[in-house]
Write a structure and sequence with these properties.
By secondary structure, the chain is α+β, with helices and mostly antiparallel strands. The protein contains 10 helices and 9 strands. It folds into 3 domains: 120 residues, Acyl-CoA dehydrogenase/oxidase, N-terminal domain (Butyryl-Coa Dehydrogenase, subunit A, domain 1, Orthogonal Bundle), CATH 1.10.540; 98 residues, Butyryl-CoA Dehydrogenase, subunit A, domain 2, CATH 2.40.110; 146 residues, Butyryl-CoA Dehydrogenase, subunit A, domain 3. The strands form 3 sheets. Strands 2-3-7-6 form a 4-stranded antiparallel β-sheet, covered by helices on one side. The chain has a 3-stranded mixed β-sheet with strand order 1-4-5, covered by helices on one side. A two-stranded antiparallel ribbon has the order 8-9. Helix 4 packs antiparallel against helix 6. The structure holds flavin-adenine dinucleotide. The site of flavin-adenine dinucleotide has 21 residues, from strand 1, strand 3 and helix 10.
Length: 392
């Protein structure tokens, strides 16, 4: 495997906005991605396999629960550090970032924020170390953008809850040891339940045949009269704000993560365009190639500044859900366009697995849909500025 030649684009000297600790964290994750992800990721995607052997290493580098306090096994870092870790992981592949996002923001975060002290101590250290894998079940076969209409429900049977229903498109579901499942109680109030692998009536079949996020495992969660112990309910939250607060955290991570995919594509295309000659000249000398590259670095620079500013707002608990929606939507859109344009710069070579563009491009088609679709995020901005909800 050739040495990774990546040079991180920093046109607006955003590095100067980072602390020494941020740079140390980012560089160590960058180095890990170069050594452990880059050499295997193309084959993992071709085989449609999640590189399970990396989960404990992800725990070791602090990618699981970066901002969860150290007493629960997390790294106790700030939001900029979390973002930088996501950026580096997604430069490797969106599947690796997705695994870290789900574990951190969709499983550890709700247990930390809404769980009992007993639940925190039982689950968080094992999730932080990667010994246990988590999944987050919100989406259902008939309810994606509209999770408030979910049909999965549970009844109080005295000494336990009885859970019935199904979730779909769940990252990690077939390999998860613990799942945060959102379901309605008898009063139709959304609650979070902790399901463990092996509970009777609980199955998690894999969803096969994906053209996107092929190095991530996706599946269903099916509940057929599952007896859930009463101590497995998250006591600290009622209603849709529970899952939505988790999604805010994950969407924030995506806003950073996709910058990594965009930078990987830009850096590859820039290097290739300087080496590849047509008509006896480097293709970088043609105006149309320069237009593509110039637009890419412009959009990357804007995305970097947006993500950094959002991180500082989140560090001070001031970021709104609408700001997070805007950043997620913008940064995924520019990353997808950069993947497409950079692929064109490589011509036919761009469609092969020797270069990362097609893989990033296909991954980003999921990223633009999950954690709230591109259009729903636009309508969230619309609602925020007009005060009128156009989607529900
Ligand atoms: C690879 C992958 C992994 C995923 N992982 C998870 C996970 O771990 N956990 C989880 O719970 N979910 C997960 N999801 C599900 C994801 O969050 C949903 O796919 C997403 O919320 C959209 O739901 P949907 O696919 O049902 O689309 P729909 O809601 O059916 O939307 C279809 C189209 O209609 C549009 N639309 C819908 N409503 C409106 C409206 N009111 N106004 C305008 N347009 C509208 C949408 O924008 C979209 O373009 C994952 C999805 C994928 C692809």
């Amino acid at each position: 495997m050739p040495e990774v030649q990546y040079i991180h684009p920093d046109y607006f000297q955003v590095d100067e906005l980072l602390s020494d600790e941020h740079i140390l964290i980012r560089d160590s994750v960058r180095d890990w991605v170069n050594r452990r992800v880059k050499p295997i990721i193309n084959e993992a995607c071709q085989k449609h396999e999640f590189p399970l052997h990396l989960t404990k290493e992800l725990g070791e580098i602090g990618a699981f629960g970066p901002y969860i306090p150290e007493k629960y096994g997390g790294a106790g870092l700030d939001q900029i550090s979390y973002g930088l870790i996501m950026q580096e992981l997604e430069r490797g592949d969106s599947a690796i970032r997705s695994a870290a996002s789900v574990q951190s923001s969709l499983v550890m975060y709700p247990i930390y924020k809404y769980g009992s002290e007993e639940q925190r101590r039982k689950y968080l250290p094992l999730l932080a170390s990667g010994e246990k894998i988590g999944a987050f079940g919100l989406t259902e076969p008939n309810h994606g953008s509209d999770p408030g209409s979910m049909q999965t429900k549970f009844e109080d049977k005295g000494d336990h809850y009885l859970l019935n229903g199904a979730k779909m498109w769940i990252t990690n579901s077939p390999i998860a040891d613990v799942c945060v499942v959102w379901a309605k109680d008898e009063d139709k109030i959304v609650r979070g339940l902790l399901l463990e692998k092996g509970m009777q009536g609980f199955t998690a079949p894999e969803t096969l045949n994906k053209w996107s996020l092929r190095a991530s495992v996706t599946g269903e969660l099916v509940f057929d009269n599952v007896k859930v112990p009463k101590e497995n309910i998250l006591p600290g939250v009622k209603g849709l704000k529970g899952p939505l607060s988790c999604l805010n955290s994950a969407r924030y991570g995506i806003a950073w993560g996709v910058i990594g995919a965009a930078c990987d594509c830009y850096d590859t295309a820039l290097r290739y365009s300087l080496e590849r000659k047509q008509f006896s000249r480097p293709i970088a000398s043609f105006q149309l190639t320069q237009k593509k590259l110039s637009e890419m670095i412009t959009e990357i620079s804007k995305a970097q500044l947006l993500a950094w500013r959002l991180g500082t707002l989140r560090n001070n608990d001031k970021a709104t859900a609408a700001q997070i929606s805007m950043a997620k939507r913008n940064n995924v859109e520019i990353a997808l366009k950069i993947a497409r344009d950079s692929r064109q710069i490589l011509g036919a070579m761009g469609i092969t697995g020797d270069f990362p563009m097609m893989r990033h491009m296909m991954n980003l088609e999921s990223v633009i849909t999950y954690e709230g679709t591109h259009d729903i995020h636009l309508l969230i901005t619309g609602m925020d500025i007009t005060g009128i909800n156009a989607f529900a």
